[in-house]
Amino acid sequence: MFENLTDRLERSFKILKGEGKITEINVAETVKDIRKALIEADVNYKVAKSFTDDIKRKALGMNVLTAVKPGQLMVKLVHDELAALMGGKAEDIDLSGNPSVILIAGLQGSGKTTFSAKLANYLKSKKGKHPMLVAGDVYRPAAIEQLKVLGEQINVPVFTIPDSKDPVSIAKDAIKEAKKNGQDVVIIDTAGRLAIDEEMMKEVESIKKAVSPNEILFVVDSMTGQDAVNTAKEFNDRLDFNGVVLTKLDGDTRGGAALSIRAVVDKPIKFVSTGEKMETLDVFHPDRMADRILGM
Amino acid sequence: AGKTKVDDDVLDDLEESLISADVGVETTLRIIERIQKRAKEEKYLNTSELNNILKSEILSMLAENTAPESKDPVQATKPYVIMVVGVNGVGKTTTIGKLAYMFKNQGKKVLLGAADTFRAAAVDQLTIWAERVDVPIVKQQMGADPASVAFDTLKSAVSNDIDVVIIDTAGRLHNKVNLMNELSKIRRVMQKLLPDAPHEVLLVLDGSTGQNAFMQAKEFTSATDVTAMALTKLDGTAKGGVVLGISDQFKIPVKYIGVGEKMTDLKIFDRTEFVESLFRNV
Ligand SMILES: Nc1nc2c(ncn2[C@@H]2O[C@H](COP(=O)(O)OP(=O)(O)OP(=O)(O)O)[C@@H](O)[C@H]2O)c(=O)[nH]1
Ligand SMILES: Nc1nc2c(ncn2[C@@H]2O[C@H](COP(=O)(O)OP(=O)(O)OP(=O)(O)O)[C@@H](O)[C@H]2O)c(=O)[nH]1
Ligand SMILES: [K+]
Ligand SMILES: [Mg+2]
Ligand SMILES: [Mg+2]
């Protein structure tokens, strides 16, 4: 949608240098370009603003303007800061429980059910675990059937209580069942819910309270726009989740939501989902994400 | 006393509201430029005048629905075929359930076609919606050719005197060429039976989607000639402002909005109400 950021900044610095009076104001102009690029990539408006304010300070401190290729240096600075902000303490998921309980939550259609099955598949094939999937979405038409079909594909048992409308007791019973059968990880899929849906947010809080999960993962569609911060904040306030899963990254979205969420809730992005097939799950690479947001 | 130019703080606030509603940088700047221009021409502007100009500028960006209420296209063509498309998880199947309910309440005979034969339990999901609304459905087994399901659905519609056919399709990301070609194929196969079908291609966009919706609109339009959009999940805090630029650039009207998961949670898009909601604080 816009030209390569490096080229653009290089060009504007060239113009500035030609004028022979490179000042703080000039840097501010370039920083504006960067801010615009971030917002176009769906980074939240406020997050982009405070991020670029930091960049401006750092750029001036680095004497970016006396560099031979100031545009390149500036882009590298932005890129490295982005990666640092989204990366850092990338912890593995906690599998120390017996069984380990993983609770999955997020907005409608974000990719929770698909991710639940992918995670089960990953833990089974890569970590030698014996997972169980739990159908905790009792609302969406055919949600249980969907999880069953996926469970069958990957050969992982799916726990359900037919006709039950109570996700809390489904989750509790599932854990008992897992203990009985020697399953060491329990992954609880839940219904999609809006952060402002009080009743549904209370429900997921109750599930958390009932099963004390080792890990709560917030699943978010990487195409999400400005609202990502509101949603992530509300889910985090309610659930204090451990990590984020970014889905549908096989698309061509810039994925600025990743930065926004990290900035607002300061929780690590643990997995990325890149397709509808069961094997399309990856760990998060902050470096790649920074490239993507900048369109590089 | 009046001012000859709109003051910068006001414009900054405006910029923030628009960007925060996912309107996007380019479109926001365009709107602001237009307002500045009009403010200059009209010399005098107080806040309420500014607001009116703002709203009228934004209204003018939203493509007019091509079908005036008086001439119901669904009445004129029989069967009227709607194909529903969009990326994964935006709310296609749910919107179909809601549409079926709406048309049925208008006294029309509705038939659903389960042409998402790919996603786990997609056929089951649409079947449950068909039962809820109490309308018939045409389906084949999972993995069947979606074009063949669509064809069967149309054939059944013709022989059963159906008024409205709604075809569900699998969610697909617009950058996947094979999957986009599949949509063109579904279209072509339907046209073997009804040369004008589909009479409507409804692109469903998730209201919480950011600027990527632009790419979605672009690619789906070029693969299937999208004729209208539905914007879902507006019952949340997201505003769906990205449709402003899309509607303006591609001249595609937003026809429906989704405001919940129940069959009654579909509304006809109201431009004025939408523009108001863009500036409503959450
Ligand atoms: N292309 C792509 N599609 C995905 C990915 N993850 C999920 N999907 C698709 O997105 C759609 C929604 O996924 P679900 O797993 O049903 O989402 P959910 O969050 O469980 O949805 P609800 O239960 O309705 O809230 C389905 O069509 C999935 O196949 C991904 O990483 N890439
Ligand atoms: N809050 C809210 N949820 C909605 C709305 N429309 C759909 N949903 C929910 O969004 C999720 C996905 O809806 P689907 O209808 O399955 O979406 P889809 O586009 O058919 O998904 P795929 O076929 O997997 O690509 C479900 O949980 C729906 O209940 C809406 O207007 N508001
Ligand atoms: K809303
Ligand atoms: Mg689900
Ligand atoms: Mg569907």
Q: What does this molecule look like?
A:
The complex is a heterodimer of chains A (296) and B (282). Chain A contains eleven helices and eight strands. Chain A has helices spanning 5-19, 24-40, 45-61, 70-86, 112-127, 143-154, 167-181, 198-211, 228-239, 257-265, 286-294; strands spanning 100-106, 131-136, 158-159, 185-190, 215-221, 243-247, 269-273, 281-283. In chain A, helix 9 (228-239) links the parallel strand 5 and strand 6. In chain A, helix 1 packs across helix 4 and helix 5 (112-127) packs parallel to helix 6. Chain A is elongated, with a radius of gyration of 22 Å. By secondary structure, chain B is an alpha/beta fold. In chain B, helix 10 (242-250) links the parallel strand 6 and strand 7 (254-258). Chain B is elongated, with a radius of gyration of 21 Å. The model of chain B has no long low-confidence stretch (mean pLDDT 92). One guanosine-5'-triphosphate sits between chains A (106, 108-114, 137, 140, 143, 191-192, 247-248, 250, 273-276) and B (88-89, 119, 171, 173).
Order of neighbouring strands in the sheet with most strands of chain A: 3-2-4-1-5-6-7-8
Class per helix and strand makeup of chain A: alpha/beta
- What is the typical, i.e. mean, pLDDT of chain B? 92
The strand count of chain B comes to 8
Order of helices and strands of chain A: HHHHEHEHEHEHEHEHEEH
Query: Based on helices, strands and strand pairing, what is the structural class of chain B?
Result: alpha/beta
Distance between the termini of chain B: 33 Å
Q: Which pair of protein chains has the largest interface, and what are the residue counts?
A: A-B, 46 and 47 residues
What's the total count of β strands of chain A? 8
Shape, per Cα inertia axes of chain A: elongated
Radius of gyration of chain A: 22 Å
Q: Classify the helix fraction of chain A into a percent range.
A: 40-55%
Query: Stretches of chain B where pLDDT falls below 50 for ≥5 residues?
Result: none
Q: How far is the first residue's CA from the last residue's CA of chain A?
A: 12 Å
Present as ligands are: guanosine-5'-triphosphate, potassium ion, magnesium ion
| pLDDT < 50 stretches of chain A | none
* SSE topology string of chain B: HHHHEHEHEHEHEHEHEEH
